[in-house]
Amino acid sequence: MDQHCKDILKEYHEKRDSFAMMEDIVTHILDLNIGKEGIEYAKISSRVKTEESLAGKLELKGYKYHSLDDITDIFGARVSTLYNDEVDLVAALVERLFEIDWANSVDKRKLLESDRFGYLSIHYICRIPKELYYDEKYPELNEYKFEIQVRTVLQDIWATINHDIGYKSVVEIPTEYKRTISRLAGLLEIADDEFKRFRRDISEYRNQILTLVNDGKFDDIEYNKDSFNNYLDIKPFDRLVESVASSLKAEIIPGNMEPYYEVFRVLKFKTLGDIEKMKNDYSEDAKRLSLHRMAGLELDIITSTAPIFNLVVIYILKQGYGEKSIIWLYNTLFGDKPENIIRARRVVKHAIDTNIIDEKSLNWSGPEEEQE
User: Is residue 206 included in any domain, yes or no?
Assistant: First the structure.
């Protein structure tokens, strides 16, 4: 290594801490602002070039650089997004935040011919503008350039594999293998596009479900986790819960409805209309059962799920299922406990005592066994 390169390496030693500071500052700025924009991303990775790596670069290309400031990748950061349309969103953000050296920045996506596949990434050569961050003790933080790369997770994988197979090899890769690499790159490009399309379709589906729920077209909505959550957003059980609370002169505290998703799934509800039908058919009986069970307890507070639990109990018993099914209901909602047997027996007795259920109509088996 000649003296010129040794001088650059010496400058690197003197400014190594500054580059480490730059790494912390830039990655924090990226993470903070990408989060503010609500952009999904997989990770932000970064590195400061090691002395060994820099020495190797100088031995090969030291003649190209007058000083350390000419080496633009001492520090580099990479933002890996989940979807390829978010590459452009992050890129636009980078352009707003940092000073861009456009002459040395490149969008690799625009370099490939239309019939070629390969490395797709945006590389920015940047500086930190003083209005974004400035420390008078370290003015070099605004002087040294650094690199920010933006690409998808799949392109990140592709770049790593291609670098390992191709760039690091001392033997030129035969044409047939280059063609294989190109085909694999094409598959990754298709996958990136398909993931973006899939996310768009899912978003449109969720918006459609939300519209149908708000319009009350429950029979048209397939029962699944998304539709159930949208259904809960309109608070469909409030009338029942408030009616029970009013009769008891009790306050309502919110309960957890999440476990009921599995309950309704096992009960073979196919649409939200099935839940609506259960609610419309059995709410009065559920209120009677709730008041009967809570009579004499002088409750000041009830959970919002208590009347809903009784609603489901009535539904199960009205289908002809018996005590064993109510044990299953307790286990599903509150955990598998020995005392659930006693609780189930008690609630079935309450339903019989209020003449809501005819004991002779009940069976031992339940919906959970039919599912199996």
Answer: no
- Number of neighbours of residue 264 by Cβ within 10 angstroms: 18
pLDDT: which is higher, 139 or 298: 139
Last residue of a domain, one of 119, 135, 153: 153
Instruction: Evaluate if pTM is beyond 0.90.
Output: no
Domain contains 279:
yes
Kind and range of the H or E run holding 325: helix 323-334
Show the 3-state SS of 200-253: HHHHHHHHHHHHHHHCCCHHHCECCHHHHHHHHHCCCCHHHHHHHHHHHCCEEE
DSSP state of 301: E
Residue 267 shares a structural domain with residue 149: no
Q: Which phi and psi angles does 117 have, rounded to 5°? A: -125, 150
Domain end point (choices 97, 129, 153): 153
Q: Which amino acid belongs to residue 80?
A: S
Say if 213 falls within a structural domain. no
Amino acid symbol at 142: N
Instruction: Express each pLDDT in 203-234 by its tens digit.
Output: 777 787 788 888 889 999 999 998 999 999 99
Please check whether residue 165 lies inside any domain of the structure: no
As a whole number of Å, the CA-based R_g of the chain is: 32
Per DSSP, helices labelled H in 62-174 are 85-97, 153-162
Can you give the CATH number for the domain in which 28 is found? Answer: 3.30.460.10
